[in-house]
Amino acid sequence: MSGADFPREVVGMRRALHRHPETGFLEYRTASLVAGRLDALGYALRIGPEVMRAEAMLAPPSDREIALAREAAIAAGGDGRWMARMPGGQTAVVAELRRGDGPVTALRFDMDALPVQEATDAAHTPARLGFASARPGMMHACGHDGHVAIGLAVAERLAAPEAAWRGTLRLIFQPAEEGGRGALPMVEAGVLDDVDLFLAGHLGCLLPSGQVATAANGFLWSVRQDVLFHGRPAHAAMAPEAGRNALLAAAAAALGLHAMPRHGSGVTHVNVGRLEAGRARNVVGDTARMEIEYRAETEAILEGLAERAGHVIRGAAMMQGATVEVIARGHSVSAVSDPAVRTRVAAAAAQAGIGRIVAEWPIGGGDDATFMMRRVQARGGRAGYCLIGADLAAGHHDGAFDFDEAVLEPAVRLFAALVEAG
Amino acid sequence: MSGADFPREVVGMRRALHRHPETGFLEYRTASLVAGRLDALGYALRIGPEVMRAEAMLAPPSDREIALAREAAIAAGGDGRWMARMPGGQTAVVAELRRGDGPVTALRFDMDALPVQEATDAAHTPARLGFASARPGMMHACGHDGHVAIGLAVAERLAAPEAAWRGTLRLIFQPAEEGGRGALPMVEAGVLDDVDLFLAGHLGCLLPSGQVATAANGFLWSVRQDVLFHGRPAHAAMAPEAGRNALLAAAAAALGLHAMPRHGSGVTHVNVGRLEAGRARNVVGDTARMEIEYRAETEAILEGLAERAGHVIRGAAMMQGATVEVIARGHSVSAVSDPAVRTRVAAAAAQAGIGRIVAEWPIGGGDDATFMMRRVQARGGRAGYCLIGADLAAGHHDGAFDFDEAVLEPAVRLFAALVEAG
Amino acid sequence: MSGADFPREVVGMRRALHRHPETGFLEYRTASLVAGRLDALGYALRIGPEVMRAEAMLAPPSDREIALAREAAIAAGGDGRWMARMPGGQTAVVAELRRGDGPVTALRFDMDALPVQEATDAAHTPARLGFASARPGMMHACGHDGHVAIGLAVAERLAAPEAAWRGTLRLIFQPAEEGGRGALPMVEAGVLDDVDLFLAGHLGCLLPSGQVATAANGFLWSVRQDVLFHGRPAHAAMAPEAGRNALLAAAAAALGLHAMPRHGSGVTHVNVGRLEAGRARNVVGDTARMEIEYRAETEAILEGLAERAGHVIRGAAMMQGATVEVIARGHSVSAVSDPAVRTRVAAAAAQAGIGRIVAEWPIGGGDDATFMMRRVQARGGRAGYCLIGADLAAGHHDGAFDFDEAVLEPAVRLFAALVEAG
Amino acid sequence: MSGADFPREVVGMRRALHRHPETGFLEYRTASLVAGRLDALGYALRIGPEVMRAEAMLAPPSDREIALAREAAIAAGGDGRWMARMPGGQTAVVAELRRGDGPVTALRFDMDALPVQEATDAAHTPARLGFASARPGMMHACGHDGHVAIGLAVAERLAAPEAAWRGTLRLIFQPAEEGGRGALPMVEAGVLDDVDLFLAGHLGCLLPSGQVATAANGFLWSVRQDVLFHGRPAHAAMAPEAGRNALLAAAAAALGLHAMPRHGSGVTHVNVGRLEAGRARNVVGDTARMEIEYRAETEAILEGLAERAGHVIRGAAMMQGATVEVIARGHSVSAVSDPAVRTRVAAAAAQAGIGRIVAEWPIGGGDDATFMMRRVQARGGRAGYCLIGADLAAGHHDGAFDFDEAVLEPAVRLFAALVEAG
Question: CA-to-CA distance for A244 and A319, rounded, in angstroms?
């Protein structure tokens, strides 16, 4: 499929994107199609290193992962010309259109999918209708396919001659929102520095179809860590006592981290999402690696949680006579939507014909758009984060996740109305 | 390096083999060099499917692993002509020489290495002398390089015109002794069915240099299992309660398995040697896979241990609302050396000039040569398993493992003397 | 000390009570002194079985515990005449004063202490000033000593001839608030059935001195369980394999329960507060008992949590081949303060000279006064729960807990003003 | 029942003793009846402090436990006159008879029972025949009732005028064999210092009825420890994060200790036999106490095991931010029977009509008679430990333990023959 064949209407776009999920910093097909479409619409493009500071990318993919992702992207109709401008996993695309003087309005859309196996049963609409993921073990399980589709449709609508707005429109297509790695490199490249009005949003989040929340609350502070345990191998039967069992250290640490106390005054979350340990069945497991995420309602609670986690991890290592390394893998911050933006979102939603407008709604997870919001606010601009209600078939990140596509079109109208009201 | 360049003396052979370790069912370079050498010596060869029943191979390598192993073998001087006769990881080589009528004598030598990272410091002789493993993460950490070198030297000595023996000499070069997967396919291919005298042996095992044990004892019964836990993914912050945490199920199972009670009347060992779980940092870990080995002194103790392990595994799954599959990955049996073979080993050791002969010594681990011993004994032949004492730098399966090479030459004399005493 | 010697001013009363903490359903000294004082003030008393339904008492103390508590109460100046009316741990006291027609106003004060060892260092005011607990391992670590002192002072003030109020005043001195066992038996005895206005309150809760919250929020639903694991004993060295280790089942369950996932949409808490297992060092631990409390923000979240806990507990038992019993030990409900009561609390606080009035404040823990609130509301009355700010030396239930006694006098004025405003 | 009523034949004695089990250092009834009987037979008695060094008693019972045990002993027919000579749990009795010059021969019989609940079903012979334990939670589950009965019968037989032996006969009735606490205080009091021939023995141990092992092997070295974890209490819902959870530290330590690796070259055993933690359901558990026993085949393996256990315990504490104390509670040593004693046991067994004599048999558990054996051997005497085969209904320390009483009478003959063969 070439860019020219890519559907024009928003539901079609979403389905075409859903079929080819790409994980963070590997969105080669998605980003190249986005670039092709926006270029065709007359937007000025900045791509890859122009809008991402490579040094600020956490855990970038390996050369091998990139090569495989590019190969798969090409095979699925990705556009190699644009991909050539995205070295090293730098898959961000920023598109700009200027209509005379006026404020700089930036909208953020995230593009990445997740390493989740999509459901295959007929109860799952993408499977039944034939647009489920074509890539084993990867899935748009958080709705970013919808976000990109909205972004492209907004781009088209506002590029039309009859669209009534003035100033500068900047559309930010961000990679690697999951894991919170994509926003910071774009912030550090200066993409947000001159923005007057910034808006990001998310579909779903347990807000029903037909509703919009003018601001998301409940953004959590978070820290991500990798933990490496180093033990000592030994023959598991001849001399198990000579081993230092890093596998069991990791097992105890995983249980201990999940068993850390809740906090009396604020939300906390802990997840050991990945654990890999040992080398062979008959050798005492001498290495282990865990990927962990901590989240908390406030910075102080997060710090307390992370400190306690350090005790858990070091104690578990000591229990096995193992040593341990903790490697920082990024962090997230909280942010608050400006009242001025909330008001404009409410007005735009009303204009878009969305019946029920709620003031705030919990985002549940998090979104590294908060780094962008804080930068805009720090430079004197206004920033906000809205939620677009959408009935869900299953929770975010679940293999049976799916959302009510009927909300896409009103969402497009909302973003367009917001810009036109500029 | 081609086969022709391969050294002729036993220490040189051992070092050349040490440098290119290959794990079970992937011994392409080793087996092809063995085949080339034995062919040149005039032995009749049977290779791969001729001496291994493919259906009896447990956990054979994937096509991709085989392709990579062949590529590496070729690059390191392996002989592609022989490798062509070893499809699907069937790397066994059986060489036979006949000198008139007489008994069939079979000697077994195992060829595989381990997924252990070799030590690199100067205290480690292979590193200091430059023959340490050239393959990251793989190592001859159990002395099978020495076994192959002994086998080749024995082959050469007994092929010499002056060698005084009659009957049939069968040299069995077995793959995949680690994990106990290689012997059974050879037994089921009938390689042992007509053997009158069978001997296998092992270097080291904490028996000092200069000693031989005419029989190893302490062979353990064992069972190997892979365990798969299936949970349910969920966003780790938005709805962790919707997840079913297979990663934590595996962690609890690993701890619980190692914590199973010892037995009051016999040795047991348990090892969860490998654990892999979860897919992403911010998703509740919905899958887990463990590789486990259970060993016990008697069949009855092993059965009790395995039954209890089933409770541990299913209970750990239930704790997380996960489901679980247990996949059999083979087993080992115990075997006892025949007194007649012990006597012959003692005589051969004396003739080989080995000063101190002990009747029995614990093998510590295990060896699937026991399958061969039992088959020989079941068909009316005699079988034995001896230990060749060798001072060690570190325990078997340790990255600093190394053995006293001075024991190689006497070992060659011992095996040759045994056959010549036929 | 006899009742006659008991101090009259509120700080003195609090200190005298602090020195003799009594745990739930064993408040013999406290309740007898309360009864004596209120009787002397002219209140009509109902005591023990008259105001508690014995069948509704969960986990009542044993006869032996009661005998020891009575003995200690007598030794510390408790009044045996009143104690005689409190069989079987039924230590509730309800005092009533009537002044013509008018509404029935009920105030609830809880009397029980905790099995916490009080701090002994000079930084701890009760220790420094000599009124720390005289009973090893028991302590007023939640401020109920203050509550009782306030209640007695309010009783005295409102019994004075000059006190301007009409109707019926009912003072409820409740046992066993900790663990949530004391309120329900009083509700079921009908003590709340005719109440028009009900108010309970709590000191501290992280609200600073000089403030009052007109309503507490964050009452959590809770369930309490005891869990018994039954295994099989065995000689720990001769035949450990014959045992079924209930001790390890409980250990795994405790870790697994604390490691249950947080909920994405509401607060949860889990605590295994007590664990007792095994019988002797050299016997496999064949019995275990755990005391657990689950709390959650909504009834639905609590149900999900308790269901998952069932899996954890049964799975941990299965891991050890043990069996398990789960015994219900009561539950708590949430309740909401009526706006009318909030308004009256605000007015009374202002009248009492308390400077800063906040609308709501989280209670943090819970209080089974919610059972009383719900009964009053169900019968058409109004109910509320206020918080009296008090600076704390350490958190509730901590051995160094202490509160700013300067808040006692204003609290007395607040309750009295509320009644007088009737 | 007074001493006078105590049965004279060995099966009756065993049953009478079985009915009143007493745990270590609390064998007041048993020891007083033993003393009364031996006194009546003409033996010279040394009792309590005369034959036990109080300073060498590990974990002696509390005054309260002693008072309760004495009370129960009196109620069950214990003889207060003898008990008066046993202060502080010093319940040992040494009886001596001299017949002219000759060697000093000492026989050891242990008296204590276990804190095990006896089976009550009809399949359990003591229950069916009405001589099961009358004391809830206590049981002669290791056969020491049989040992005492044998000792008394031997005493009677050898006191008879027709008994043909010369020299000094010393009968040692030892308390607290379980837990290995009773022998050392007697050794340190000098009871063994002049012994020429020492024999101890045990019933059962999986050796069938009708057999005797002239020596037990497999005595294990052992260490006993109590571990105290100190955390910090906190309200489990208001501020769980302020707590330091000693209960969970103990849970993780218990699992981690049982999961310590087996040893490749020798038997090990670990048992956390008792765990008590926390104070109340709604308080974070701030204290925990564990009773642990480690055993190993050699002193070196035991030291390695104990060192590793230290890491497990300290690591588990660190995981929870708790502190930890480890308190030594004694140790056991191994000992080897002298060949001369083995020969004499074999001869005596033959004379006693016991059909099948085996040279060695594993004891399975351990016995602190090894301290006595070592002292005798250190002073130039000869020592041995034999096993009296006895079919068992269930394993030692199991609530359904029972042994074949038919072996008692031959055992009496064996010990008597040994002395008479002097």
Answer: 9
